Task: inverse folding
């Protein structure tokens, strides 16, 4: 019997799950009353493998029973590792039944506990669960974070999930290459072979000859978990695509129902509007490209749980104690726990707006201002421009070219000063691609700018065409209109905070204190993060100078070093009252506003979520000496009555800072 169990496991690895399920079910019956079943790991091991095989065959009720029994036995017999494996298999059952959020919650909870030898499969399962939700970037991250395997040693599941990811990213050649690798190893009787053949067929289908709605249906099919059955009844996403293809609907609205939170439905609406020459409708759809994921991922608000607070405290203590090498793993552990806490609270997607934003936007812009939304359609970067009472669309060339130009500018800034020839050349190239077709439409108007996550967080004020031009960075047109419509708050009480390092922070704050004689000043040992939050709640304007740091994958743990321990972006949830203006004179503190799926994150997202109207921060590294002088000029201009965005454009934009919000 044990030999047959091993044989069943090998059959499962070969993708022959029907045979595996029948074999292991027969063994389960034969084990009743047999002494071998009393050996601690045998029966729960058989049940765990049987449940997974039945899951892959679509026998969900039987799988649920057997996995529940396996879980109970592992707890009863103290089999910790087998218990973790059983939990992972139950996560797969949730995924294939259509409950991707529960699957993601399960897999994230297992990440800190499974050994390296089991984590490849876990990362593959997590990536597939993210894909089922339409979270392509998060799926890519999950695969990238998994253990590295030797060339040629990846499992069939890993190859197929990567193939799905590449197809959703538009790399059809790589998809076909991966699926052929799978078909070369497994025969037609294998589930892996059948799934590879289906993906290869989708990859080789001529995409450009199909309508946007038809391409979106292909993407929905690709996102379906590997062994999950196709839905029996039409989903909201499929009903929305039917309406778009019939021409029954043109612009988004409440008719979308839950499909407003599906990225590929939103993309189909956007691409269809552009192809039909309807830029106003395209702008309405583009708004949803920044809001669809808010029901799938946690935003800047953090659930208040002891576990999250403890993990954040551990991360903060590690930064304060100089334990840098372990900070990345602590940040990832906190991010995973945050997702799980948010999931436990219940998802809260944004409602679909009932009104159209274009009319309000054009009215608010008037004749003297412009708005640009940078988006993407079928591999092409596109600018949607509202100016002079009209909405226009302008193609900017291949999306990869625009993304690479922005990435090159940010990369060069990491090693060169702001005015170096390499930086100027990189900024000019980014401006040529992004702004060349836009400038004839906007002239010299001040701008509000929104962009999708693929465009990252560039320092917009460094682009030659935008130097000296007031630019408001916003997440959507609606968010800008609502903030711009809010009454101005007089800036009276000022808080100035200087971290111990760099040395220029104290000089900068000392100079600003002379501009604001009545300001509250916290410096040195007084500048503790709890004290800063208390004082910020009493201020109308806050200026914080110090060293900034943003951990990879966890923008809500972005930090500015203070006296004893750093201030984290997540701490800003503790603000009891929001200042009108916050200026962050530190590197990287503007990161996470655009370059994340869902709601803006990082320091800027957290401050906006607390009600701060305007944040001035830099998404790139900045030079201490240049910033110190520029900040003094910026505040001197503010004191003279110049609006924030204009003062940023004049003095801070050229050194990397941006104006976020109204």
Result:
């Amino acid at each position: 019997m044990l030999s047959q169990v091993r044989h069943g496991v090998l059959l499962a690895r070969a993708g022959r799950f029907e045979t595996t399920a029948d074999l292991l079910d027969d063994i389960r019956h034969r084990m009743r009353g047999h002494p071998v079943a009393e050996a601690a790991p045998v029966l729960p091991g058989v049940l765990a493998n049987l449940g997974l095989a039945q899951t892959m065959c679509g026998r969900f009720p039987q799988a649920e029973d057997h996995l529940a029994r396996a879980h109970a036995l592992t707890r009863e017999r103290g089999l910790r590792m087998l218990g973790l494996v059983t939990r992972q298999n139950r996560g797969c059952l949730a995924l294939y039944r259509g409950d991707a959020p529960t699957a993601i919650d399960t897999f994230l909870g297992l990440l800190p506990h499974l050994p390296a030898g089991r984590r490849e499969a876990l990362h593959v399962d997590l990536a597939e669960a993210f894909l089922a939700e339409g979270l392509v970037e998060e799926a890519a991250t999950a695969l990238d974070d998994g253990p590295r395997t030797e060339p040629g040693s990846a499992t069939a599941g890993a190859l197929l999930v990567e193939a799905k990811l590449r197809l959703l990213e538009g790399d059809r050649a790589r998809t076909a290459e991966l699926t052929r690798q799978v078909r070369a190893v497994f025969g037609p009787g294998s589930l892996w072979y059948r799934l590879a053949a289906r993906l290869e067929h989708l990859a080789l289908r001529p995409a450009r000859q199909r309508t946007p709605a038809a391409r979106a249906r292909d993407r929905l099919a690709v996102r379906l978990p590997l062994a999950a059955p196709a839905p029996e009844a039409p989903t909201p996403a499929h009903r929305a695509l039917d309406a778009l293809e019939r021409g029954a609907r043109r612009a988004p609205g409440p008719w979308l129902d839950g499909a407003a939170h599906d990225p590929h439905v939103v993309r189909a609406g956007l691409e269809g509007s552009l192809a039909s020459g309807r830029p106003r409708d395209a702008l309405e759809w583009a708004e949803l490209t920044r809001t669809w994921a808010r029901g799938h991922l946690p935003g800047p608000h953090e659930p208040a749980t002891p576990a999250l607070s403890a993990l954040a405290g551990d991360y903060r203590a590690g930064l304060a104690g100089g334990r840098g090498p372990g900070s990345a793993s602590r940040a990832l552990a906190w991010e995973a726990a945050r997702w799980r806490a948010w999931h436990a609270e219940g998802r809260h997607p944004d409602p679909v707006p009932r009104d159209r934003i274009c009319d309000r936007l054009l009215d608010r812009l008037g004749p003297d201002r412009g708005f640009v939304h940078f988006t993407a359609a079928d591999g092409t970067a596109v600018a949607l421009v509202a100016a002079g009472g009209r909405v226009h669309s302008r193609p900017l060339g291949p999306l990869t070219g625009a993304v690479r130009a922005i990435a090159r500018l940010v990369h060069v800034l990491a090693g060169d000063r702001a005015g170096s020839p390499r930086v100027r050349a990189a900024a000019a190239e980014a401006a040529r691609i992004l702004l060349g077709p836009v400038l004839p439409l906007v002239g010299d108007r001040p701008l509000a700018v929104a962009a999708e996550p693929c465009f990252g967080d560039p320092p917009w004020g460094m682009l030659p065409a935008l130097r000296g031009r007031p630019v408001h960075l916003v997440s959507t047109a609606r968010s800008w209109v609502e903030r711009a419509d809010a009454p101005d708050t007089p800036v009276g009480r000022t808080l100035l905070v200087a971290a111990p390092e760099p040395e220029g922070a104290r000089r900068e704050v000392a100079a600003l204190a002379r501009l604001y004689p009545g300001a509250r000043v916290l410096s040195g040992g007084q500048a503790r993060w709890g004290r800063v939050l208390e004082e910020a709640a009493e201020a109308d304007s806050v200026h914080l100078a110090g060293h900034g740091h943003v951990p990879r994958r966890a923008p809500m743990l972005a930090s500015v070093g203070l006296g004893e321990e750093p201030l984290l972006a997540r701490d800003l949830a503790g603000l009891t009252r929001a200042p009108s203006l916050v200026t962050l004179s530190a590197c990287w503190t503007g990161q996470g506003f655009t370059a994340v799926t869902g709601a803006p994150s990082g320091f800027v997202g957290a401050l906006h979520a607390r009600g701060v109207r305007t944040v001035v921060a830099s998404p790139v590294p900045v030079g201490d000496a240049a910033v110190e002088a520029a900040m003094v000029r910026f505040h001197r201009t503010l004191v003279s009555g110049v609006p924030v965005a204009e003062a940023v454009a004049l003095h801070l934009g050229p050194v990397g800072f941006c104006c976020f919000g109204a």
The radius of gyration is 27 Å. The mean pLDDT is 91. The chain has 27 helices and 14 strands.
